Amino acid sequence: MSVDLMPNRFRPGEAELPQREAHLISRRDAVLGASYRLQYRKPVHFVRGEGMWLFDPDDRPYLDFYNNVPSLGHCHPEVNAAMAEQAARISANTRYLEPQLVDYAEKLIATFPAELDRVVFTCTGSESNDLALRIARLASGNEGVIVTSYAYHGTSAAVAAVSPNLGAAVNLSPNVRIVELPGPAGIPHDQAADFFEAQVRLAIIDLQRRGIGIAALLFDSIFSSDGVWIDPPGFIAGAVDAVREAGGLIISDEVQPGFGRTGDHMWGFARHGIVPDLATLGKPMGNGFPIGAVVGRSQPMEHFGQTARYSNTFAGNTVGIATADAVLTILQRDRILDSVVSVGQYLRHGIEAIAAELPGIRGMRNAGLFFGVDIGFEDSLPAQRRAMALDLVNAMRDDGVLISTTSANEDALKIRPPLICQHEHVDKFLEVFHNSLGRITS
């Protein structure tokens, strides 16, 4: 049975398109590889962005409640100015002395717990996770990796092999063990930690018995691809202890939850009361500019650096560093995390009010400005829930608001607006959400 790896996508013949878009799609299909897919049943065509908004060729605005990569909104003028100014001066690599590289590294490290005191720069989250796995395997002397059941950690061969989310055609490494999250399994909060720890310990035993050993527990601390199953805070702590007892390292994938997305903390792992050995960062770090990093404890980082060669010419280039520095400056100066908390609460209350009025919302989870909202009627089948969620996403797209779906069944809404989101943007989202949900459930 074939599996649709991107159910919320354009399929030729399903939507009537203007000639302008139809012609562009025809040209696109003639030159791009088949792995490219257009989002939404009726593709969106954007020519510019500004803050929370994207604009099509007719200057129709779309409210973006989906894209986490432009963490400070589209085309932030201060970020763009820093990028352009540095690009006009010089773009150089880390093999040359550059004060801003060191300045930014010090500034970034200062946002982490004291135990995490080294940084290596990359270009993307995929590269960050790839490098973190190399460090963990060298430091531990083992190969095994534990991930959650629908995790996504990137696109390189190494991280695709530890990303169950990519589908059956992408083979997982024989050294990977998958564990289930307590939320999707219906485990009560007071049993969640024991449930998760027990699975991790069994995975460690299996890896050891097969002579593989445990190199790392790799997790996205907001568990976004699994459906944003984030609670209860701290449920992963016992599993972390188990991995360390067995000689493995803890890798927190902070590409999506990092840089204040959860509001209460700069980094998602802090919500669980743990300090990882390695934390991986990606494009939100540069508001979409291709820059990432691995931040970690000095011992494994130094051991790797002294015994293995790692050269990445573009990583840590001066333009990327200037851009990332502008992002971090704005996050701290404008107290963005405080806003994320208050706006996230406002959005949660609004969705709760709609759920009390209209059918079709089975549950909701959030940390700051990252939401998972389960769609479907309680007695409906998985396929019916998925269809309903996709209908809702596309109805909202038609009304000018962008979101998408997540979870193994793609029946949870993924809502993650840029961190500059304000109450007036939430009000617009809630209006369209209410009207669209009302239409598809009536």
Automatic annotation (TrEMBL):
Its cofactor is pyridoxal 5'-phosphate. It comes from Novosphingobium hassiacum. It comes from the Bacteria. The keyword Protein biosynthesis does not apply. Pfam families: Aminotran_3 (PF00202). One of its GO terms (molecular function) is transaminase activity. The keyword Transferase applies. The lineage of its organism: Bacteria, Pseudomonadati, Pseudomonadota, Alphaproteobacteria, Sphingomonadales. Belongs to the class-III pyridoxal-phosphate-dependent aminotransferase family. Keywords: Aminotransferase, Pyridoxal phosphate, Transferase. This is 4-aminobutyrate aminotransferase-like enzyme.
